[in-house]
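Hey,

Quick one before I head out. I ran the complex with beta-L-arabinofuranose overnight. Inputs first:
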Amino acid sequence: MRYLVPDDFMADPAVHVFQDRIFIYPSHDIETGAVFKDDGNHFRMRDYHVFSTDDPMHGEVIDHGKVLDIDDIPWAGRQLWDCDVAEKDGKYYMYFPLKDKNDIFRIGVAIADNPAGPFIPLPDPMRGSYSIDPAVFKDGDDYYMYFGGLWGGQLQRYRDNKMIEEPHLEPDEAPALPGRVVKLSKDMLQLAEEPRPVIILDPATGEPLKAGDAERRFFEASWMIKYQGKYYFCYSTGDTHLLCYAIGDNPYGPFTYQGQIMTPVEGWTTHLAIVEYRGKHYIFFHDCIPSGGKTWLRSLKVTELEFDSDGRILTIEGKMKSEK
Ligand code: FUB
């Protein structure tokens, strides 16, 4: 394991290979003195930096500088959380969650001519967007955005893509609140359809995981990879601090729960991006060891990820010591 940006606090990595380099799009954690609350009040990020490398375990990591600032987003309220970037026809589209002036998370788009930015935000959030943690996955000519997060991510405020009057989680025996997936429009700027639930099935029963199944159900931090023709939906279980995955036959699912990708790291949140680069798979994540356990000051890490011959991900020990 390696810390990638030892001199600053970066979290929630989204990672892609563009122009034969690894590009990393993290959240930029800052100290504001805000108190820790279950609604994520303490995560008050205000900008994004982009990093790149051609050797994630040992090579130089270039900081391309600040590429988007909250002050440049016309609809901004507060809290720039986990973003992602996709490329289409030589343009780079950043998708970012941000609370609007009513303190409601929406997902915005910013555009750049190259993967290192700078990104220019559109004047309004995507129509019909809500919640947090957008992760964009390209499959053939189509782009899918996975999103959603419980508690501070506000997913419990929505049913059937509509805001409800009394936000609530489901009772323990009911199906868990799912993350969402939606195809993006051809111009990459809007949702092309109504978002659909990302259903995760219990392999033993074939039924959706239950809300009370806190060690397996979805909480936040969606990520999608394709491996040997199968779709691996990866996510965090939030309050049980696990990174898990479930496998399906297409980008919409349903997905069948498989197991843990990583055991808990130091810190409350846990978040991942997996990328294949020059024949190896890498997992990017964060922990709070360098800040002495301050959960709002997280540091970016990477390690190699391996599959067994059946396509199962070998579980990584989250508290493993770093090499640097
Ligand atoms: O960075 C704020 C939130 O913490 C992210 O949106 C979640 O995924 C968690 O990592």
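The longest strand covers residues 10-18.

Talk tomorrow,
K.
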